[in-house]
Amino acid sequence: MSEVKLFFGPQHPGMHGNASVHLYVEGDLVKKARLVPGMLHRGFEKSMENHTWMGNLALIPRVCVAEPDINEMVFAQGLETIAEVEIPERAHYIRMVIMEMTRILAHMMSLGALASPTGLYTANQWMQADRNNIQDLFEAITGHRIYHMYIVPGGVRKELPQGIETRILDFFTEFERRMPEYHALIFENPTIQARLKDNIMLPEFVVWELGVTGIGMRSAVGKPYDVRKVTPYARYDKVDFEVPVATYSDAYTRSVMKYYEIKESIRIIRQAFDMMPQGKVNVKIAPGNALKWTLPKGQTYSAVESARGEFGYYIVSDGKTQPYRIAVRGASFPQGFLGVERYMPGVRLDDAPLWYDTMGICTPEIDR
Fold it and tell me: In terms of residue numbers, what domain contains 23?
């Protein structure tokens, strides 16, 4: 049987983001896979080095469209560390709410994306409808639906609008009530079980070889490594939550874990509002023209726990108004780059979109 070359993405309903994978197949079996980066043409890291510190606030959320606020958080934390800025206590709790809301958005997008390769379109429609409701909440808080530019060096951009706490808690109370329906629709579906169970495995040796973190690691090795627990930021050390783990990392297990992480995120949001103090939400770090803010010389690695694992920025300042160097540690880079080429071969052609989705890959973290 002769080998055929096929193009998976960027214009393919199963490809999540502007990426392309060249698949070499025999029959319906993938024999070789080659990631072709360069579809975004953005060069985020070098673009950041050519903008002022504060001018980067509009650029950084685009490193991951599905979960933009993680970029705001690692960037703000890094700058605050170098500049030795202490932010108000209330800002820590607001940041925690924002981070968990964006984690829920990312997990919902991933679970909804199971629809295209499996034909379960109702799940995607439900997910997108509820994601739209959460984006309404983000719009009320920040003025924006996708790229929020709300977490800034010194705290958050502005105070929460009046009544937003009630709106957020009311929505998630209703959403939690319907979560068993989501579970029945997706995880009790015979097609989903047939396609995902015992399929697209992520063995423990691959986790250590590639440096996979997040759900990929926690589902394979059973260890609750989570940056929110290991090196707490915001005020994650003040709230009580569980980190779901497993020891059998098939596509089904990784997807189910996202469902349980959504439940824990809602739990964190409720606690954050209960514990949130009154007071200021930011400190002025650059009196006058913020675009001319000069950071002291220094360097730091700032990391958070994204929906896909450890996400970090290595930031270097040479004492000027622009970064000397910024390197992005994308949470999905290990499995999204090396993983595609080493471990996608061997799957069936119709499972390639499921491989890409359940491995938790956000394309701009690779093409950066």
Answer: 4-365
Residue 126 sits in a domain whose CATH number is: 1.10.645.10
pLDDT value at residue 1: 56
pLDDT number for residue 116: 79
Q: Which backbone phi and psi does 2 adopt, to 5 degrees?
A: -80, 155
Produce one character per residue of 257-276: b if its CB has 16 or more CB atoms within 10 Å, e if not. Answer: bbbbbbebbbbbbbbbbeeb
Give pLDDT, residue 13.
Answer: 63
Q: Across the chain, what does the average pLDDT equal? A: 91
pTM (whole model) above 0.70? yes
Q: Is the dihedral of CA 140, 146, 151, 157 positive or negative?
A: negative
How far from the centroid of its chain's Cα atoms is residue 305's Cα?
8
Dist. CA 13–CA 116, nearest whole Å: 7
Residue 174 CB-density burial (10 A; 0-12 exposed, 13-18 middle, 19+ buried): exposed
List alpha helices for 10-49, DSSP H: 44-49
Look at residue 12 in the predicted model and tell me its pLDDT.
65
CB atoms within 10 A of CB 95: 26
pLDDT of residue 41: 66
Half-sphere exposure of 108 (CA within 13 A, CB side): 24
Amino acid present at 101:
M
Which residues are registered as beta bridge partners of 20? 36
Q: Do 354 and 337 meet the contact criterion of CB atoms below 8 Å apart? A: no
Q: How many domains are there within the chain?
A: 1
